[in-house]
Amino acid sequence: MFQEDGKITHKSIDDVYENTDVTKGKFGQETTNSNATRIQSSELTGSDSVRIRSSRAAVVCLVLLCVLLLTAVIVLCVIFTQERQQLLSKNENLTNEREKLTLKNTNLTNERDQLKWEKNDLQRCLGQVDGWIYHEFSFYYISSEMKSWTESRRYCTERGTDLIIIKNTEEQEFVNTISGGAQVWIGLTDIEVEGSWKWVDGSTLTSE
What is the 8-class DSSP label of residue 142? Predict the structure, then answer.
């Protein structure tokens, strides 16, 4: 029994309990909705954390990759610089060697030309003397006078020459040819030690 605006209203206990249940039902639903919202927010927050951690890991990997690439580039630059310096040094050495060889070749060419000129001049001068024969960069002279070995050598040395030293078979055959098979003195003697034959330049006789 309730009094409302001066009126006495009768409500049963069942009505009161029913209203209470309705209120409780609404409150429980609101509580459930609130919990669901918090759970959903919690789930969304966890997903964002995973994405953030993934992004950070990707950034760290990218930074490490950049560091590795930069290190590799620096190492390659150092190696390239060292190789370049070595190549430059080697090229400089080769250039110096080439210049030395070029200078040496020039000197040898000049010496060759000088020797050729001297040979031609000597050949021209000796060509004016009767009896001289030129062969393989040497001049030969066979005297028609009969002399001993000592007299023949003195005759040669007085004219700035010496008795012939035969160095090979070809030269021996040439001497036999120009002498016409006649006996001639050569620059071989055992005057110092009998039986020990030496050429007039001091070299020993060989079997070649």
Answer: -
- Closest-CA residue to 139 (of 100, 106, 178): 178
Instruction: Provide the β-strand partners of residue 139.
Output: 134
Q: What pLDDT, on a 0 to 100 scale, did the predictor assign at position 6?
A: 46
The alpha carbon torsion through 54, 58, 61, 66 (nearest 10 deg) reads: -160
Tokens 């030309």 belong to which residue? 113
- CA–CA gap between residue 103 and residue 97 (Å, rounded): 10
> Is the pLDDT confidence value at 104 over 90?
yes
Average pLDDT over residues 159-175: 88
Residue pair 165/199 in contact (Cβ under 8 Å)? The answer is yes
Superfamily of 133-199 according to CATH: Mannose-Binding Protein A, subunit A (3.10.100.10)
Average per-residue pLDDT in the chain? 77
Q: How many CB atoms lie within 10 A of CB 197?
A: 13
C-alpha triplet 108, 109, 113: angle, nearest 5°: 115
The answer to whether 165 and 208 have CB atoms below 8 angstroms apart is no
> What is residue 58's predicted lDDT score, i.e. its pLDDT?
85
- In whole angstroms, what is the distance from residue 164 CA to residue 177 CA? 14
**Boundaries of every domain in the chain:** 52-128, 133-199
Mean pLDDT (whole number) for 101-122: 89
What is the distance between the alpha carbons of residues 208 and 205, in angstroms, rounded to a whole number? 9
